[in-house]
């Protein structure tokens, strides 16, 4: 028998576990999927926006995998922490596949990021998604009239949409009650989503972008002068040569180029060619706005500063300029790329494949691609593991790893515990007159999981 630990129950971990048990080359593989959280599914539960129910429903197919009798879910088990080192884990299993994601946000690196009211989009997403690490976050939304979101990817679009969306449309989602309440009391009327580069260079997908224009009670606008700065905007030949997504994005943005605000209660402005320079604050330490330098295309796909500045009022600033991996104690880490060095999924230590250690998902290739991209990524890794399986399986293991985890003081949440959390979330929703509602804190989750 080959006993494998998969660390992380997000898409890449679940796809790795599925590939391991469904393949036929190496019979008798058993997989434990460990996660530091009591709840499975990684960013599908704690990142994908609550109003994107179709994508959220992918949890159903991840669930089917985790219910396979050859797979055990062990939540509330942190690897690389005080109680369980990477070395100890490798003693307990023939192989370990690290699928721990890339959950840290990048800073802008400009003055004022410490001001009250400046947050990462990661923190905001975690808060409205009910991530237990974000339970103590405070977003003073009643005091906000204008918000700035810095970034031009789908996460920037997500947080812009959630800020502008009415709570009547969010109430049917599983958003935690405190977040829903705070958004219901929000004073936000204007959201500026600001990009350093041009409209044809946005990293958002067209479906997500277009959705902004469908929000009830929300005007969306772009500045025709900023669109026109983009060299491909007025050049049909250059526009035709763009990738299809960029071409479609440009058409959507063109449709929003207008004379100015309409009369909707909320307005989203999509701004381009503005480089963050400084976050401005008042004497009370709260953010009051953001200073940008206007940029211009430099002729080779980049932008250059023009020395012209623009200030945008804001009582809330969310930065969404990319994710990065976090080093896991005991695993090698490439701090330049924010990933674990690997060759076809085999973890490299000092340039050589480390016996029995593998990596998949965002921590392997960086924070790119959609959920489905993690499937071929996990398959490549598992294929390497299976090639090594003959040598790996020769080692005798000390017994059931669950006993060793408990002996180390860990209290794993097993699948019935997770089902109990789900049932408690359904009960909570019923008591609030809503569908299932997430429990947003550690105590609540572990309490709902029952005796561990
Ligand atoms: C805000 C946001 C919204 C997104 N929306 C979409 C979308 O709508 N559609 C789409 O296709 N893609 C979306 N994505 C991308 C998608 O979520 C990722 O491609 C995918 O989740 C990456 O999978 P992963 O398994 O590598 O990492 P993750 O999903 O992050 O899973 C990593 C898991 O590892 C666990 N873990 C971390 N450290 C440890 C440790 N030390 N010990 C034990 N466990 C640990 C974590 O708790 C987590 O459960 C979104 C991403 C973000 C950030």
TrEMBL record:
FAD/NAD(P)-binding domain boundaries: 3-165
InterPro entries assigned: FAD/NAD-bd_sf, FAD/NAD-binding_dom, Ferredox_Rdtase, Ferredox_Rdtase_adrenod
Taxonomy, superkingdom: Bacteria
Keywords: FAD, Flavoprotein, NADP, Oxidoreductase
Alphabetized Gene3D superfamilies for the sequence: FAD/NAD(P)-binding domain (3.50.50.60), NAD(P)-binding Rossmann-like Domain (3.40.50.720)
Name of protein: ferredoxin--NADP(+) reductase
UniProt catalytic activity: 2 reduced [2Fe-2S]-[ferredoxin] + NADP(+) + H(+) = 2 oxidized [2Fe-2S]-[ferredoxin] + NADPH
Keyword flag Oxidoreductase: yes
Protein family: Belongs to the ferredoxin--NADP reductase type 1 family.
